[in-house]
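Cross-check.
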Amino acid sequence: MNESSNSNTDSEDEDFEMDGSLGHVDIDLIAEILEFCLDRHCNKRNLSVLIFSILRNFSVTFRDAELFLSQINCMSDKSAAKQLFKFKTEPLVDLVEDGRELTKSSDSVNNLIRSERMVRNDLKAWGYEYKRNSKRPYFLGHERQDVVNDRNQLIDYFVNRKEDYYKINENLEWIFPEDKPTILIFHDESTFRSCEQYHSRWLEKGYEPFLNKGRGRSLMISDFLVSHPSSPFFFLAEEQWNRATKKYPSLLETDGIHYDKNTCTGSIKPGQDSYFESDTILSQFERLFQMLEFKTEYQNP
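Predicted model, tokenized:
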């Protein structure tokens, strides 16, 4: 840098007001500046800003900060404060010297290519924050106080009877109950979509868009998982299935659900098939109860 540019910089720094606008410098901003320095920007200016921001984090006065910076031959406190102010208020692309790329590459119009870390800092400066979007059907319905209370009661019921269940130890070996063998059967419903969305995202403060599940192009699977040594999935052997359908011919009906052979595992394609409404789920449970009678592995647990 030549003498002319140095004098211009010094003049601009003199015009910068050392007021309380900087306030307290938080740890996140210090981490951003450190990352900026480590990302091929480790020079006297940026190191001075890093040191100055740490001093301000510990509430060191401007006067003491100036004395400390001068003792270690860093930039003046005004220069560091001005640069720190830019870190807090301006896009980081403006803090890079002309002609220097953050990733040492450029696009067809020679624009600067910015790192993910730098973009993240800009989003924070613009009032965005990365968090979990709680404005979704699950939170709106499943976290009601009455639902939470019922769920806790149900959990307590199962926990108090854990010695009666088939369990797996840390060596993936089955532990068999001794007194009252009880087989746990879990119902699980999952939706697999081609355009799945992340729960956490960058959101403008005070604004959380409602993400509806919708009935887009997806595959819904409703299944039963079993805690039993015979198999983690519920199904009937061919001979068992033949006896079950003879007694319950309705098992041969699908009600618009695609059932895997000899199972209660059902799937639908929302938007093309019917939907997993309450009546559909109840009919699936009825199918399970009818088939349980013929599952010989469960008759003498």
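The beta strands are 128-132, 167-168, 174-175, 184-193, 200-204, 218-227, 258-259, 266-268. The longest strand covers residues 184-193. Passed to J.P. for a second look.
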